[in-house]
Design a protein that fits this description.
It contains 10 helices and 3 strands; from the N terminus they run ααααααααααβββ. By secondary structure, it is mainly alpha-helical. Strands 1-3-2 form a 3-stranded antiparallel sheet, covered by helices on one side. The longest helix is centred in the N-terminal third of the chain and has 52 residues. The chain starts with a helix and ends with a strand.
């Protein structure tokens, strides 16, 4: 009986071991495949984000406008500063790249940003290369323009707070889900209505935009702000105040 039990136990263990081996043989390739697919997906997302930050023919926006402005100031670009990366802009970029010993491909990437002196844009692109915030350099520049136009007289924390409100709106289902969509939403910002959005942001506004993108929110989650000394809408006074920074009241 003892021999039978011992033999039976060994047989059972062999069967169980065989089952686990079979399961492992089946699921290990699946796990590896899933891991590889996740890695590929992450790489594709990172590549897409990086591509969005690079300017090339066909790109549009404030970042292109700033490149054009600088190239025109230095005599490389003869066209209008319209924020549209066309053939004229590409030719000017190539001429600039040749003059500065860069790869003359007409594409504004990290090295060309750096040579143009667009340090904040260069830093954003570098951050995205290592898995940064997901916002493009054009997003950062527009955010900085809005901060400068809306709050250049405010303390630094107040300027970061304005950027944080814009980003909080991007994340809210009640507002557009892009920085451009939030900024240019009808009647959302006085600076857009009166044209001050087109002013060139200073380094303080650029730093404030970067701090907001990096996650600093001095308001604690506000989606509205206003200056009570000049606000005319009775509706805005009904919103719950959660912070007061400088001349602005921040609310939800």
């Amino acid at each position: 009986m003892k021999k039978f039990i011992k033999a039976g136990t060994l047989t059972a263990l062999s069967v169980i071991t065989g089952v686990f081996a079979t399961v492992a043989a089946v699921f290990t390739p699946i796990a590896l495949k899933n891991r590889e697919e996740s890695r590929i997906t992450a790489t594709m997302e990172e590549t897409a984000t990086l591509a969005a930050a690079v300017l090339r023919q066909g790109s549009k926006g404030g970042e292109v406008k700033e490149v054009q402005r600088r190239l025109k100031q230095w005599g490389y670009y003869k066209g209008s500063v319209d924020g549209v990366f066309g053939t004229g802009t590409k030719s000017a970029v190539i001429a600039f790249q040749k003059r500065n010993g860069l790869t003359a491909d007409g594409v504004v990437g990290a090295s060309t940003y750096k040579a143009l002196g667009m340090t904040s844009s260069y830093n954003v692109l570098q951050n995205q290369t290592s898995g940064g915030s997901g916002y493009t350099s054009s997003d950062l520049y527009l955010l900085a323009k809005t901060i400068y136009a809306e709050g250049r007289g405010e303390p630094y924390t107040g300027q970061v707070a304005i950027g944080a409100v814009i980003l909080n709106r991007v994340r809210s289902s009640s507002f557009p889900n892009t920085i451009a969509g939030v900024v240019y939403q009808k009647n959302a910002f006085t600076a857009v209505a009166d044209g001050q959005i087109n002013l060139t942001p200073d380094n303080t506004a650029m730093r404030a935009a970067q701090d907001a993108v990096n996650g600093w929110d001095p308001t604690g989650g506000a989606i509205y702000y206003y200056n009570p000394a000049i606000a005319t809408s009775s509706w805005i006074f009904s919103r719950k105040t959660i912070a007061v920074i400088g001349k602005h009241v921040f609310a939800v």
